Amino acid sequence: MSTPASTLKPPPSFLADWMRTEGVAWLFIFKAVFAALLTLWIAMRLDLPQPRTAMTTVFVVMQPQSGMVLAKSFYRFCGTLVGLIVMLVLISLFSQQPVMFLSATALWVGICTAGAARNRNFRSYGFVLSGYTAALIGVPAAQHADTAFLSAMTRVAEVSLGIVCAGAVSALVFPSHAGVQVRATVRRRFSGFVDYVSKALGGTIERSQIERINAAFVADIVGLEAQRSVAVFEDPDTRMRSGRVARLNAEFMSASTRLHALHQLMNRLRLEHASLTVEALEPYFREVSPLLTAEGAPVNNAADAVHAAAQLDAFKAALPKRIRATRAKLDPAANLLEFDTAAELLYRFVDDLHAYAQTYASLAVPSHEREHGITRYVPKTSLLAASVSGVRAFIVIMVLSGFWIVSAWPSGGTAVLDAAAVVALASSSPRPTQMAFQMAGGTTLAAIAGMIVVFALYPLMDGFVLMSAALVPFLMLGVFLMTRRGMLGYGVGYCIFFCFLAGPDNVIHYDPSGFINDAIALVISMLACAVAFAVLLPTNAPWLRRLLLRELRLQVVTASKARLNGLAMRFESGARDLLSQLDALAAGDEALQRDALRWLFAVLEVGHAVIDLRTELERADGASIRQALDHVARLFDHPSPRHFQMALLATSSAIDNLRALLDTECQSRDERHRLQRMSSHLHFIRTALLDPQSPMASLGEHIGASHAA
After folding, report:
1. Is a pLDDT exceeding 70 seen at residue 667?
2. Contact at 8 Å (CB) between 526 and 381?
3. How far, in Å, CA of 215 to CA of 210, rounded?
4. How far apart are CA 536 and CA 367, in angstroms?
5. Where would you tag: which of 286, 441, 524, 669 has the fewest CB atoms within 10 A of its CB?
6. Radius of gyration of the CA atoms of the chain, in A
7. Taking every pair of C-alpha atoms in the chain, what is the biggest distance, in angstroms?
């Protein structure tokens, strides 16, 4: 009797498990420390004035994946150059006027902080560095204006060296590529979506499960865009597919929105006992899931998706004719408007699903025509929230600058330039107050470790090898903290400011009072930033959540009024980006997350229908339809019972006008189909507003809207 092959496989070893988890973290730790020491050695060999600046840069840009390091290095270099140019201008204008110089510096840091809050990923980091570099170069150089240019040039050289060494070590020493993670995410998401399609169209999924799955989809969408934006820095093959990955994200968003809208509509029809419509369409639903397979087997990669795309293409081509045949056989008692609405949503879902499968299949080849004509993911950030971040940074810099001038504290400049970095870096964090406090704790630990290194170990060291041996355990401690969940702030504060305080220069100065003053200045500046985040319009206060929820609702206004070219992608990506921000603010509060998700569903359902309706309207005039769209936009802008009632009345009136046109015999077949599609979109908007699970349901209770159907 033969033993099954599966029983011959040995269980995963402890070492293999460790290598996939902790081993990855320790590899990053060793690579970061090696890159820092390599940078320090080269900087000393080149006789740069402050090798510790180059070493600090390594810890600032070092990331687990090569693409992340290269992307962060690119934006750091760009931000450094911009900050350098701005600071040279400010020094030339105000070097003899400390108050004017510091005010201009605070204003520039505020502008850059607002830009960092407005942007995403490492583009945000470029803005941070533009502000921080200006302070880092300008504050010390302004006190010695005669050497400002030379000081600025050497600082840029040190930063550039750190960038080059970090990128080289990350790319050449056991590299980890973001492109691999992108491919794994794409593959996992397609398989997960196939399973979701099967459950949703089969009616075997609960509301709570739908919410969890869609929340995971949002995280996947935002995360994939972040991964794609850094993977393009790694190799030409990844860059050749970058546009298709962006298209894949867009098509996945559209398909998942259509599926949810179709599922919700069918649920509403079941609640209203529209059994004739449900029974007529359910056979089509059961046919969709098997199409998303490769000859009956699950799709495991892009090559397998070719067959699935071909099956969907054939199904989509035959669907309109089959739907018309089913419609003709319907019992006269059936509500044709409900059937038309569900059938239209089914066709559009299949169309989006087919495009999604086609793009996934195209990834199997290096180049493809679907790489071109891409509408990019567009993140959405509140301009007001970004402006608040900028104003907060301006106030912090001004307060610390005023204290420096009044007290004449020797380390006051250190406090100012450190605050410029911390206030911008923490602004991009979902918990800026916690981040600033953690960095202060990490810096305190770095100060203690730095005193041991500088005053106890350095005097005993002779040569670079011994000095490196002394530094390794202290550097490893900081990087280890960076890899621990929930301790990133401690690790960042420790690594950066250990190098700042204790990093060796070519000529080491033993100045205990200066060291202690600088350490106190660093910690005080971080605590000042933490207090500012906690007091000056704190990000965890209800105001920001209400602001983001309003921005989410206004996506429907955008769908109603913005130009149509590329609107669908801007609308989809903006709505999901706002939800990701709301989730970060909720910090595990399930009630708040569920409320935000309900608003997302309402916005996506109505907004998509509005865009579809406007696309049909481009070819004809429809005053009543445009009026209905205006009322719907007004409702999402200012939700109230009155606006709710006006939106329902306007959509009902527009539907009646379209049905009256359909009853006449003068329209061509294409025109009748167009009128039917427009009626379906309006009917879906109306049913979405009346949905008892919609956040608009409470408005309907005031006017008895639940009986209006």
Report:
1. no
2. no
3. 8
4. 51
5. 669
6. 30
7. 100
Report the mean per-residue pLDDT for the chain: 84
Averaged over 556-581, what is the pLDDT?
89
* Alpha carbons 466 and 469: distance in angstroms, whole number: 5
Site of tokens 């996939």: 20
Structure tokens at 16: 């293999």
Cβ neighbours around 60 below 10 Å, total: 23
Residue 536 CB neighbours (<10 A): 14
Average pLDDT on 576-605 reads 85
Q: Domain limits of the chain?
A: 20-176+380-535, 178-233+235-371, 542-707
Type and span of the H or E element at 293: strand 293-294
Give the integer Cα–Cα distance in Å for 142 and 203: 69
Per residue, the 3-state secondary structure of 73-130, as one string, reads HHHHHHHHHHHHHHHHHHHHHHCCCHHHHHHHHHHHHHHHHHHHHHCCHHHHHHHHHH
Contacts of 37 (CB under 8 A, 6+ apart): 468, 471, 472, 475
Range of lowest pLDDT (510-524, 528-542, 551-565): 528-542
pTM of the predicted model as reported, rounded to 2 decimal places? 0.82
Going by C-alpha positions, the residue among 636, 647, 626, 642 that lies closest to residue 571 is 636
Q: How far is the C-alpha of 158 from the C-alpha of 149, rounded, in Å?
A: 14
The C-alpha torsion from 287 through 292 and 297 to 303, rounded to 10°, is: 150
Q: Tell me, what amino acid is at 581?
A: Q
Closest residue by Cα to residue 629 from 646, 677, 693, 349: 646
| Alpha carbon separation from 635 to 70, 153, 643, 650 (Å, rounded) | 46, 56, 5, 12
Distance CA 486, CA 119 (A): 24
Q: Tell me which amino acid residue 25 is.
A: A
Distance from C-alpha of 414 to C-alpha of 420, rounded to nearest angstrom: 10
Counting residues of the chain whose pLDDT is more than 90, the rounded percentage is 26
The rounded distance, in Å, linking the Cα atoms of 605 and 254 is 11
